[in-house]
Amino acid sequence: MGLERRISETGQGTDMVFSRARASSGLPCAQADLDHVEHIVTASGTSFARGMRVLPTARRQAMFAIYAFCREVDDIADGDAGVADPSQALQEWHERIDRLYKGETRDALDRVLVATIFRFDLRAADFHAIIDGMAMDCGEPIVAPDEKTLDLYCDRVASAVGRLSVRAFGDSSPAADLVSKHLGRALQLTNILRDIAEDAERSRLYLPSELLERFNVPNDPKEALYAHGLDGVAHILARRAHDHFRDARRAMKDCNRTAMRPARMMAASYEPVLNALEKRGWKNPEEAPKISKGCRAVRALAAYVK
């Protein structure tokens, strides 16, 4: 049982002070290694780095390491890493993760990941799940998976990331894993609904085959864009995403309130995207939804102070 979980279960004041001191002091890594990992994050152009500024130093550095790992395996899966055999490269990441849990490191990212793994009791199974999720995007594009496969994909590429993240945030309880399960699926379904047209350009279609058949939508990604029943399929998935947002908020009530702050902010930022997509509909999925940045900012701020 990790330090953070003992704190959440015992509530002892001295342990809490010790935990905060450790989380604030930074990971025991060379500054050059930490800078290298942060550069991977900032070079990606994501707003992730700004969002993680709310965390104490060690937790923020841990999240940068988790993000850098995800960035590297995602680039392999998307063909942006310049490797000849993406499947083999991902298999090598499986082997690399196994080495990290033995304390074996070969570069800066390895060293920061090892420090993160052992400081926050991260589970190897979650790293392996993420790699397996990226492998699903290698080779033949995903087209109209069945419901079970889609849920597995969402678990691997989104909820597994959440299971690592909540530990870095400071909560390793079963309730925190439940938050990861539901919030990860809510975010991934929102991404899928937002990116239907973009995915079609890459010959991908993540909508489940059962719903496509029910609404008479063809399995061909580009033909599906203009099918009359696409709107019905997408609205059902949107309702499922809302259900997952709701279940994530419910599970958060049984978690460490401070630890869940980044998760609350992420949900508050993403739900307006889902709402805007529903308002626009999917009769013309290439049209950009109208999302108020001010609304998203206010919701995220409200989640921070809540």
From TrEMBL:
CDD domains: Trans_IPPS_HH (cd00683). The keyword Ribonucleoprotein does not apply. InterPro entries: Isoprenoid_synthase_dom_sf, SQ_synth_HpnD-like, Squ/phyt_synthse, Squalene/phytoene_synthase_CS, Trans_IPPS_bact-type, Trans_IPPS_HH. Keywords: Transferase. PANTHER family: BIFUNCTIONAL LYCOPENE CYCLASE/PHYTOENE SYNTHASE. NCBIfam families: HpnD. This is Phytoene synthase.
